[in-house]
Amino acid sequence: MVNLALANSHSCKHLRVSRGRLALGIAQGFTLVEFVLVAAISVIVLMVAARLSVNEARSAIRTYVYQSLRDQMARVTFLIEGEVAEASDLSLTPPTASDCPLSTTSRVFLFTFMHSYTQSQSGGSSYICYYRDNLTPRSLYRYGPRFHYQTGTLWKPTTATPSSLRLVSRRTSLYDIAVSQGVLKYKIKIGIDASGSGSIWNLSYAPSSEQVARVGTACMPSAESTGCW
What we know:
5-stranded antiparallel β-sheet, single chain, 37% helix, disordered N terminus, alpha+beta, 3 helices, 4-stranded antiparallel β-sheet
């Protein structure tokens, strides 16, 4: 009986000590080693999540910029192809100074044509000329009759509405330009190449394929019918 009582007393004392150590461990929290491990794991997880977020943001920005450049290229090629389709006398030789401004150190002539809609009208110049500047980045300019602000048709060049030099597209370069049998071929580059922190916004888009514009392919209504001839 005495031995049983001593054993029970020892067990109870050991149980109280274990409970006390458990309570002390809970009160003290993590050990230094455990805290360092948890902190390191947390930092690694945060760094990975931040890198993934930055990469996704950069990818979204690049997609937006490239889409904007493609839209800008589409507007430029649509204008050139539309005007050339309604034109005649397509040439890489600049007309006289009275028809289009001559090339200068800051502005280089590219190509010219006579627009069919203004060719039969009297007064003013009916030539349309395209230029690029020699600045960096380069831009594309057009000299010719103005577009009507409501209908989009060309104004008849007069003293009140003379032909003028207008900016077509910034950061735009036409190159490898060739004219043969009424067909204009060229390549186009939109945007600029840059490096550094701002390079994500300064991208360029230059398709390898040639752009083609043909004279006399416009669909124009005739006087006798509502169709095209």
